[in-house]
């Protein structure tokens, strides 16, 4: 059994003018909710960037918040489209930068949320999350009592294993900036 809890995210498309171009390039990033992947949890972890206005067949490098997401090639009309899974980073707004290798540029912003889930196996709860602040001390709380403290890594991910007590306790996690309330856990 597993339960998934998600933080919200918002995508803000903007219009940018590539260098050397006459017309504005429309940059769209979708969907509006993007969350870092927390295996084995489900959820929307993939975003798509698309638009027009680059030079025909120009190679375009994609980066989100300074992390590289590979490249794509514009079509004969300067259009482009690429989907990628969001990498684990602390939640917040990040620039989505497209840099053409012939000098064209465009930019948008994306907001990345936070997510978490739990799984139970042989009386042990494994609690995972992503999107938290780097090196955050995250309290694992069962029935209003801190039972463990996990520390997120530099990219905001954490994992903790705790014994699942008898009954149906409530589970939550609290970091410096984010909290997730999972509700009742079936132990």
The first-level CATH class name of the largest domain:
Mainly Beta
Determine the structural class based on helices, strands and strand pairing: mainly beta
**Radius of gyration, rounded?**
20 Å
CATH names the topology of the largest domain as: Immunoglobulin-like
The H/E string reads EEEEEEEEEEEEEEEEE
CATH architecture heading of the largest domain: Sandwich
Percent strand equals: over 45%
User: What distance lies between the first and last C-alpha atoms, to the nearest angstrom?
Assistant: 10 Å
**Can you list the strand order of the major beta sheet?**
2-10-9-6-7
Amount of helix: under 10%
Characterize this entry briefly:
With 187 residues, the protein is mainly β. The chain is built from no helices and 17 strands.
Please specify the SSE layout and strand pairing.
Layout: E1 2-6, E2 11-12, E3 14-16, E4 25-30, E5 46-51, E6 59-64, E7 67-73, E8 80-85, E9 92-100, E10 105-112, E11 115-121, E12 124-130, E13 137-142, E14 145-151, E15 158-163, E16 170-174, E17 179-184
Antiparallel strand pairs: 1-11, 2-10, 3-4, 4-5, 5-8, 6-7, 6-9, 9-10, 11-12, 12-15, 13-14, 13-16, 16-17
């Amino acid at each position: 059994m597993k339960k998934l809890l998600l933080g919200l995210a918002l995508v803000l498309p903007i219009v940018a003018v590539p260098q050397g171009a006459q017309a504005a390039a429309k940059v769209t990033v979708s969907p509006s909710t993007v969350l870092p992947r927390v295996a084995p949890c489900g959820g929307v972890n993939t975003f798509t960037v698309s638009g027009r206005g680059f030079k025909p067949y120009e190679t375009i490098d994609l980066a989100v918040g300074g992390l590289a997401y590979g490249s794509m090639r514009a079509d004969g009309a300067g259009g482009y489209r690429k989907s990628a899974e969001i990498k684990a980073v602390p939640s917040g707004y990040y620039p989505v930068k497209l840099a053409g290798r012939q000098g064209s540029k465009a930019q948008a912003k994306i907001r990345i949320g936070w997510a978490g889930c739990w799984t139970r196996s042989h009386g042990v709860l494994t609690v995972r999350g992503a999107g938290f602040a780097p090196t955050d001390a995250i309290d694992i709380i069962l029935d209003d009592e801190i039972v463990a403290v996990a520390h997120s890594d530099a990219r905001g991910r954490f994992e903790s294993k705790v014994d699942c007590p008898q009954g149906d306790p409530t589970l939550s996690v609290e970091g410096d900036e984010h909290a997730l309330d999972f509700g009742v856990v079936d132990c």
